[in-house]
Amino acid sequence: MPDIAASAVKELRERTGAGMMDCKAALSETGGNMEKAIDYLREKGLAKAAKKAARTASDGRVFHYVHTNFKIGSLVELNSETDFVAKTDEFNALGHELAMQVAAANPLYLKPEDVPEEDLEREKAIYRQQLIDEDAEKGKQRPDSVREKIIEGKVRKFHETSCLLEQAYIRDGDKKVKDLIVENIAKLGENIVVRRFARFAVGE
Known about the structure:
Number of helices: 8
Low-confidence stretches: none
């Protein structure tokens, strides 16, 4: 096991928010490689977070965001298991980020399961007609199986733009909103749940 410098442990702790012993163990496991240690901690944290997801989150806070032009605003109810976590800087920062996300990205639903069946069927009907029109223009006919595969991909895209948890995080397009929440679950050690949200725009 390599000797791990205290400065490396300190740096890893500052970059990940993980405990000192966890940081030391991660660096030992990865031979002192900082980037690999970050990945190691993230994987461990995500595994722990998955276990916490079943726990009840009945405390929390309501967060708000109003854009600088005062024409767009949002409210988000973010729940934690305890008032202790709800008062932490990390939890409050997450709530603020989510309120900004709602204002900027205008999600219609929280998660794919919340999309009403009739809304989903209407979207599928639009995609299906688009494909039929494309085929007619090109004088060809795609097999139904191919057409349905394309529609599945379009539905996934619909979820990624319309559902808050599936949206790309506004500050990091490689990360989904649900990934941001899971990272905070791992960091804070409690289940965190977006209960509901609302977006307001002048004239809408």
